[in-house]
Amino acid sequence: MKKIFLLLSLSLFFACNSSEEKEIPEEVSKEELSSDINDNFGIVIHGGAGTIVKENMTDSLEKAYKDKLEEAIRVGHEILANGGTAMEAVQRTINVMEDSPLFNAGKGAVFTNAETNELDASLMDGKTLNAGAVAGVTTVKNPINLAWEVMENSEHVMMAGKGAELFAEERGMEIVDPEYFYTENRFRSLQRLKEMDTEETELDHDQSAAFVDPFIKDSKYGTVGCVALDKDGNLAAGTSTGGMTNKKWGRIGDAPIIGAGTYANNKTCAVSATGWGEFFIRGVVAHDISALMEYKRLSLEDAAEEVIQNKIPDLGGNGGIIAIDFQGNIAMEFNTAGMYRAHMNKNGDLDIGIYGAE
Ligand code: ASP
User: Fold this and answer.
1) Annotated catalytic residue within 223, 239, 241, 262
2) Where would you tag: which of 66, 77, 94, 184 has the fewest CB atoms within 10 A of its CB?
3) Which atom of ligand 1 is nearest to the CA of 221?
4) Where exactly are the structural domains of the chain?
5) Bigger pLDDT: 327 or 6?
6) What's the mean pLDDT in 203-221?
């Protein structure tokens, strides 16, 4: 009797297991998807999350942001529509935002405590799991392009500071005088923070509180990012940033950390993050979303919600992500008041948002 019971339980166990496995989004099962799904493509971008509320925004500034988001996403969408790769779409879309003073990346990068601009970027190919990243560069006009160079033309994944700049020169990349990154607005933001910093330091001698406080209460994490799915079913993700205003000691955030600020894997999704980098590094946010899909079979939407609405706030951090999965489903999840964001699907339907609950 016992033996029969054991046999029955075992066969039930294997039956359940094999039916579950059919749902796993593995490469094999993906190939079997209908050609309709294989032809799908889409692109999502962000221009940073933070305390972005309508009351603090003028109509003209709101229009400027929306126009630039649209300009950027159309560049990537056209590449995808013409059969280009997700990697190319991500890079070229990010270039548009890097060249705009509106975002905290490239031209509009924020200032460090030493009144310099130190830029970080990373890029990942979901097909090969190749990746490239740069941190703390001061002379490279488009850091996302340098991340690509690191991935394509070096044996490494990440380069930092002077060495990365030397590599950029050797690769014939566009080098600019650090003055190129000066913008009045960003410089004023630094001065404001420094004033607050001084007061706080005088009050309680707590450097870290002074450093952290402005980040939480009135911060706009203006990092830019892009994720894309191309017609061949390949995913890519990229992120570019100036980091956080008033950063010191060569501080580096999540944006150039593969798995934290950027991650792409054809089996699951492509993710780019923006927010309080220290928490996104500790939460390994971008990879965690992918892992929840791969190991726990969560949908992209549920995985993104779990990480951004539960895990990161539980750690004490804030911010958001954009993501697209291997079927073209998307997520634009944030726990801040707003996040500059846009999505365009295969049909060219455009969805642009700035504030929460739009
Ligand atoms: N995540 C970036 C950092 O911590 C900041 C941002 O998203 O704007 O460097």
Assistant:
1) 223
2) 184
3) 8
4) 1-38, 42-355
5) 327
6) 41
